[in-house]
Amino acid sequence: MTTANLRKLSHVVALGKYGTFAQAADAVHLSQPAFSRSIQSIEEEYDVKLFERSTRKIVPTPYGKIVIARATKILQESRGLRRDVELMKAHEYGEAMIGMGPVPAGTLLIPLVSRMVREHPKIRTRVEITHWANLLRLLEAEQLDLFIADTRELMSREHLEIIPLPELHVGCFCRAGHPILKSGKKVPVEELHEYPMGAFRFPDIWLNEVMEGFRFKSDPRTLLGFECDNLLVLEQVALSTDIIILGPASAFQASSREKKLVEIKLTPPLQVFTHFGIVVLKDRMRSPAADLFIQYALEEMPQTKRRGARRSA
Questions:
Q1: Could you tell me the end-to-end alpha-carbon distance of the chain, in angstroms, rounded to an integer?
Q2: DSSP 250
Q3: How confident is the model at residue 307, as a pLDDT?
Q4: What's the pTM?
């Protein structure tokens, strides 16, 4: 409904409330002739008489009563809609539907959602954690505003916009007191093969990079003895066994800070990095809440050892 029509409806409601043209015109800040023309035009538009003018006090006809009742609701909804839009623009209302791959969730989810709840508690945030292929289907069905995942297999999708995130170094971690730390010196990469290893499930495109980094010559399927996309589970298993786990340092901050989990210093250094990016539909308008989430992701991404992030074409 146009602003002009809403204004006319507000004039009808005002006349029903005050019962005189003079008071109603004054209430809506119009001259009485202009107010009378407005009432006349809406009566002509509906082709019915809305008010009885023969008595001292103007009273609504049965048609007028219906129009006043409906117009009051319409005006309330219009004001509510305008208020909600303004609140969304101010990040005080709305919803962010976010997807994350398991590894980005382990490094980014808690700081991101914590900041959103702390700074904008009235924004509803819904998070889906699953494989990037599932996240892509949800994004294309417009059930997600965006997702964060390994993006290398998505670069050729022309309908997507990919915002790269800093590349985090993936290291090897073990419990304090692990036999591999006994020498106190840097550990040859080949020595890792003597212990069980655990990690999140690698994207297929990442496998060659990992195999080369570990100088592993056997069947790739035998490299890992334990695969789990829940980094917290990986961490707990590492703290209670001799397994060596892979992941970004930011995923194990608490245990590392308490010196329960130790990053193994390798020679040569392991050159394995994450390839995370924020994925959105190229031609879809994002909500203010989604844009805010993107801003926070770029600001909160741990600034650890990194290489230059690649940009999507």
A1: 41
A2: G
A3: 42
A4: 0.67
